[in-house]
Amino acid sequence: MKDATTPAPINLRHLLHDATQQLHAAGIEAPQREARLLVAHAARTDLAGLLRIDTLTDAAHARFAHMLARRLRYEPMAYIIGQTGFWSLDLVVSPATLIPRADTETLVEAVLDHLPDRNAALRVLDIGTGTGCLLLAILAEYPHAHGTGTDLNPQAAALASLNATRNGLAARSNMLCCNWADGVEGPFDLVLSNPPYIPHADLATLMPDVVAHEPARALDGGPDGLIAYRALARALPGLLAPGGLGVLELGIGQDGSVPALMRAAGLDVVEIRPDLGGIGRALVVKK
């Protein structure tokens, strides 16, 4: 006879239904998918693996309950799971850095089109590297390239180093903790940056996932959102080799003001590439 004190198995279908309802009530997009991702992570499997199980262990259920509570407080899914995908990479993420977005992949696409020789021995700099996503995506596509990533936050620089190792790119990358490109010796064939570009007054209007959990220093572009671009305009002419490219991420509505800053610094504006939503996202400039 079954011991009356033995807890009943936790039915996966009922658990997913209840979690989906809670996430929906909290206003979280794609609540069913998010519920499945959380359960899969708690069960130490993937979405396909969920099809092969009907119940959760007590330990898995406890992990799930803890993660669901965090998500209902609008903590980003990537921070809860601890990783995310970007381009061809699997990246560790933490609250020390922004979570890489698909929009930022527009910069990688622009680089590949403007520098078509994949065997080029490029020297690359990524200013404000965060997780290292941009630099590491480029190194993965150009097997003879070497690069440096800089970040003011020592925890971010350490995380970028971890991601370089995780993706087999540590031997061709160097992550430094410094302000912008202070102490970095050029010239570089390619300089990348996804700088802080949200006008300060707009920070409070961002989604709660972002404003309450992602680092404000990596978002806040000052009163007009352009402080970082002014610094980049001053730095890029001295960092780029003749004919070198700068590829910068833009925020909404910045496809006029930022190119003007770069032209005033003596750089040629080569392209403003839109993301999938039609927003001018990747600014390509040339020395």
Automatic annotation (TrEMBL):
Residues 110-204 form the Methyltransferase small domain. GO terms for molecular function: nucleic acid binding; peptide chain release factor N(5)-glutamine methyltransferase activity. Belongs to the protein N5-glutamine methyltransferase family. PrmC subfamily. It is an enzyme of class 2 (transferase). This is Release factor glutamine methyltransferase. Residues 15-82 form the Release factor glutamine methyltransferase N-terminal domain. It catalyses: L-glutaminyl-[peptide chain release factor] + S-adenosyl-L-methionine = N(5)-methyl-L-glutaminyl-[peptide chain release factor] + S-adenosyl-L-homocysteine + H(+). Substrate binds at residues 194-197. Methylates the class 1 translation termination release factors RF1/PrfA and RF2/PrfB on the glutamine residue of the universally conserved GGQ motif. PANTHER family: HEMK METHYLTRANSFERASE, MTRF1L RELEASE FACTOR GLUTAMINE METHYLTRANSFERASE. It comes from Komagataeibacter nataicola. S-adenosyl-L-methionine binds at residues 128-132, 151, 180, 194. NCBIfam families: hemK_fam, RF_mod_PrmC. Its EC number is 2.1.1.297. InterPro entries: DNA_methylase_N6_adenine_CS, HemK-like, N5-glutamine_MTase, PrmC_N, RF_methyltr_PrmC, SAM-dependent_MTases_sf, Small_mtfrase_dom. Keywords: Methyltransferase, S-adenosyl-L-methionine, Transferase. Signal peptide: none annotated. GO terms for biological process: methylation.
